[in-house]
Amino acid sequence: MIILAAILVLSVLLIIGVSVPLAFGAVLILISVFGGHDVSGFMPAGHWKMNSIVLLAIPLFILAGSIMERGKIAAPLVSMAELFVGRYKSGLTAAAVFASAVFGAISGSAAATLTCIGAIMMPHLRRANYPDGVSASVLIAASPLGLLVPPSAAQILYAWVTQQSVLKCFLATIGPAFVLIFFLCVVNFFMLRRRDDLLLSEVPENFVAEFGKRSWFALPALLMPFIILGGIYGGIMTPTEAAGFAVIYALPVGFLVYKGLTWETFTAVLRESAVTIGVVMVMVFMVLIVSRFLIFEDIPGMAKTLVFSISENPVMVLLMVNLVMILIGMLMDDVSGILLSAPLLLPVTMSVGMDPIHFAAVLGVNLGMGNITPPTAPLLYLGCRVTDVPVNKVIWPTVLFIVFAWLPTLMITTFVPEISLWLPNLVFGS
Amino acid sequence: MDLIDQIPTRLRRPVSFLLRTKIIFVSVSCMIMALTFFFVVIFRYILETDLFAYEEWLMVICFWLFFMAGALGTYDNSHINADLLSQVLQNPLALRIRAIAVVLIELIVLLFAVYWAALMIIDEIDSYPFWQRTIALKIPFLVARLSILTGFIFMAFYTGLRLYVLIATRPDAALPGADQKGGGQ
Predict the structure, then answer these.
(1) Most confident range, picked from A91-105, A159-173, B4-18, B56-70
(2) What is the per-residue pLDDT across A224-281, written as a single tens digit (0 to 9) for each?
(3) Best mutation target, B79, B175, B180, to test chain A (most A CBs within 10 A)
């Protein structure tokens, strides 16, 4: 009974606009008043749970993403992608998809990917006569690649909550990321196939020389994922240390190489990213306390019983789990969504034989899709602000991307485990 | 318009001082956090030694960073929310009532959070000299836990200021465009 009341209170407060951490705080009030829990244990529980070095990867990736965003590190990546596909019809929007994937490998954040790639690509797309709505929706639909392409702060969080290997979780989302890139490019091609007024990039006379020039300029940016991922997979650094290393590496690259950073922009970056860190970590703190009490009340067990009372068919169970995760993703951001849904839904999926590493990929795709799905869709509204395109122009093409690119990716990721597991099994053995 | 421009004049100086202090603290803390992990790697592979028990003092700094920055987020009104209702409502009166109700609910929850955090601090102080400390450097847990209490006090204070502004001084603050919520990811 108290759980139903908690879900109701949480949903109503989120819908009327109470911020996520305080909506969870209201759930705690409900638990303390009607559940008879000792309130003196709430805050120490949050402190104990959050007193973890692993969790510091989240603020560090936020900081690294912000520094790269202002440091103009994305510009050479976009230029490289344009060189390869810019000459084809719908090639520039495809370049935006590829650039989002590569930038995701650097920043580990969907919002940073959207802000950075969106701000650079949108003027190019407008100059080449690409329709505003489609251009903005491509950028929005591709931005969650930042959550799927490793390193991903969301996957670090999932691994920490469910006690899985971070490296395996990182590898599990690479396959779904490639599937998503393919579908996004195909849908993008179909949407633009009848446009005859698109200006295509000219092929440089000496392609190899141009490629060499642009590669050289992009090298400091391209080295970053190698340093981060090489450091992690080479056993040289933990993900948290790699995130710290990425911040320090981004400073000379932003200040001296791409010259996007000045002392003024740097202090502004520190202030802005600190506020984002505070907002995210206070939310993590509150959600951790609530999830501890949900586990104490055996909600994962109850969720399992509820799902199996409806159907014991594994396909139906996984479809129901996906539906719940999409709804969570539509109401919450990726961090609180993972903290809430991973401990609740993992036992359900494991009982139908899903590997926890496979579930990491399914969860990543679900929350990425939830973050661009109207009506809540934090990335959709952020994308409209970044590209300066009204929401009504973006909604319809974004829905098409969700239905024809994201949903097929989700279904393939859910029902074809090999897509997620072949790489972790290849590297670590099955 | 910034919140500080709408509050009573006598409060502006202390509020502005607190904001500046917090901004300097969180900016420096961000860099300390990144530099620490950078030097952990440098120490390990170049100097072939460990940065002794760095996690104990770093976590204290990080807790203060998280909660002071969280308070700045409350001041900026940038905590993450879904806010579906304000996109559906058109009536200015309904929008104003919604905005006041949301800030009031947030203030009540924050006052509860302050109470829970105060209970935690009282428990810590009561247990002296057998209070909890870190293993190597013996830093009392109280130091990190005080950040939670201080952070929630500041959040409640800024939310109270916003409620005051909404009710007493600026009726149009509830209109679309005045509300800067969202983002923060």
Answers:
(1) B56-70
(2) 878 888 888 888 998 899 989 989 999 999 999 988 899 999 999 999 999 989 998 9
(3) B79
User: What is the tens place of the pLDDT at every residue in A112-145?
Assistant: 788 888 888 888 888 888 999 999 999 999 999 8
| Rounded mean pLDDT, B107-126 | 96
In degrees, to the nearest 5, what angle opens at C-alpha A65 toward C-alphas B34 and B156? 75
> Tokens 């009506």, residue?
A375
Please name the residue ranges forming H helices in A20-165: 20-34, 42-50, 57-70, 75-85, 91-107, 110-127, 132-142, 145-148, 153-162
Q: Which of A167, A128, A176 is nearest to A148 (CA)?
A: A176
CA distance A421 to A425: 6
Count Cβ neighbours within 10 Å for each residue of A280-318 and write b for 16 or more, e otherwise: bbbbbbbbbbbbbbbeebebbeebbeebbeeeeeeeebb
A323, A29 Cβ separation under 8 angstroms: no
Of A37-51, A144-158, B137-151, which gets the smallest average pLDDT? A144-158
pLDDT tens sequence across A312-325: 899 999 999 998 88
Any long-range contacts for B7-11 (C-beta under 8 Å, 24+ apart)?
B7/B161, B7/B164, B7/B165, B7/B169, B11/B161
* CB–CB contact B185 A63 (8 Å): no
SS3 state at A36: coil
Nearest to A279 among B37, B70, B98 (CB): B70
- Nearest alpha-carbon partner for A274 in B164, B26, B152: B26
Indicate if ipTM > 0.85: yes
Q: Whole-prediction pTM value?
A: 0.86
Residues listed for chain B: 185
Contact A29 B109 (CB under 8 A): yes
Is the Cα dihedral A339, A343, A344, A349 positive or negative? positive
Q: Which amino acid is at B132?
A: Q
Q: Angle formed by the axes of helices A417-428 and A356-370, to 10°?
A: 130
Q: Cα(first)–Cα(last) distance of chain B, in Å? A: 23
Q: Which residues contact A238 (CB under 8 A, 6 or more apart)?
A: A54, A232
Which pLDDT belongs to residue B71?
A: 97
B83 at the A interface (CB within 8 A)? yes
Give me the amino acid identity at A200: L
Taking a C-beta distance cutoff of 8 angstroms, is the pair A334, A377 a contact? no
Taking CA atoms, A217 is separated from A93, A249, A285, in Å, by: 22, 16, 41
Please choose, from the candidates A251, A121, A111, A99, the residue with its C-alpha nearest in 3D space to the C-alpha of residue A181: A99
pLDDT for residue A66: 85
- Average pLDDT of the segment spanning A296-305: 80
The gap between the terminal CA atoms of chain A, to the nearest Å, is 42
Question: Measured between CB atoms, does B46 come within 8 Å of chain A?
Answer: no
Amino acid at A356: P
Return the structure tokens found at A351.
């009982």
Interchain pair B80, A279: CB under 8 A:
yes
